[in-house]
Amino acid sequence: MKLQIGAGPSLPTDDPIDLLLDCHVRIRHFTALATALAGAGQAAAAHRVDAANGLARYFGVAFPLHGADEEELLAPVLRRSADPEVLRAVESVPGDHRAADALLEILLPTWRAIAASPDGGPALLDRLNEPSAHLRSHLAEHLALEEALLFPEARRLLDPAEARALREAMAEKRLR
Fold first, then answer.
1. Are 27 and 63 in contact (CB under 8 A)?
2. Over the stretch 29-47, which tens digit does the pLDDT of each residue have?
3. Rounded CA gap, 29 and 7, in Å?
């Protein structure tokens, strides 16, 4: 069994909402990989190690940056909305991120232990089943809300200069 680590190439864009959507593609890929790893007892040890390394790296580095982009950069734009449903959803985003973080507190150490094990830590895989499935379903709901409600509203609210500034702020965070 081969576990696909990479989520594929990103599309070149200067649109900050497209960049967030591109992150959503990666989140879906890595949550699927997390559930695949949980059931990968028959996979080659090297594949389990690679998958666990990829998951620890993505969810330990990139995923928190995405959440910060939404909370620190996008939320202030969305709070200008006159739509009460949008405003309620914006206020729910940090709680959704904290719920994912709580699951990652369980998953990250396990992925790191699997990655550090020469045999790919097959005995650790059972620890991944429930939290991986919860993470995947929780984030699927979260992403769907953002894509259906928040991102279209952000596109409506952002003027070209604000969109450029948002894109630049997102890029700057990744250079730190």
1. yes
2. 999 999 999 999 889 999 9
3. 6
Average pLDDT over residues 119-143: 95
DSSP code of residue 41: T
- Per CATH, the number for 16-175 is 1.20.120.520
Q: What is the dihedral of CA 74, 78, 84, 88, to 10 degrees?
A: 10
Q: Which alpha helices (H) appear in the chain, and where do they start and end?
A: 16-38, 45-57, 63-68, 75-78, 84-116, 129-145, 151-157, 160-175
Map out the domains of the chain as residue ranges: 16-175
Distance of CA 43 to the CA centre of its chain: 24
Lookup: tokens for 10: 């990103």
Local structure of residue 126 (DSSP, 8 states): G
Q: Does residue 5 register a pLDDT over 80?
A: no
Both tokens of 115, joined, read: 């990655």
Tokens standing for 152? 């279209």
